[in-house]
Amino acid sequence: MYKNRSHDGSANICGKKISAWRKETRPLMSQRELAQKLQLEGIDLDKNAIQRIESGKRFVTDLELKAFAKILGITADELLE
């Protein structure tokens, strides 16, 4: 069965950008804090899921992408560029 992957083998194209934007927040936002903020938006992810997304090992749904963008204060398009 074929699995959708980017040219570098990653399961998503936004994980590295999510990680970079999260690390640029002041004060620094941990993966656990990001997971807690996502849960307040109705997205049930834990710290481990955030780690898998940032490392490109997990797909990101459109609902998750929208919530990431809202929490990080950017647009979904910026995460997909």
Describe the structure using short key phrases:
single chain, 81 residues, mainly alpha, 5 helices, 0% strand, globular
If you had to describe this structure to a student in words, what would you say it looks like?
By secondary structure, this protein is an all-alpha fold. 54% of the residues lie in helices and 0% in strands. It has five helices and no strands. It has helices at residues 15-24, 31-40, 47-54, 62-72, 76-80. Helix 2 crosses helix 3. It is globular, with a radius of gyration of 12 Å.
N-end to C-end Cα span: 28 Å
- Please identify the structural class as seen in this structure: mainly alpha
- Number of alpha- plus pi-helical segments: 5
Computed Rg: 12 Å
Query: Biggest sheet, in brief?
Result: none
Low-pLDDT ranges: none
H and E order: HHHHH
Oligomeric organization of the protein chains: single chain
The residue-averaged pLDDT reads 93
| CA-based shape | globular
The strand count comes to 0
Helix share bin = 40-55%
SS strand fraction? under 5%
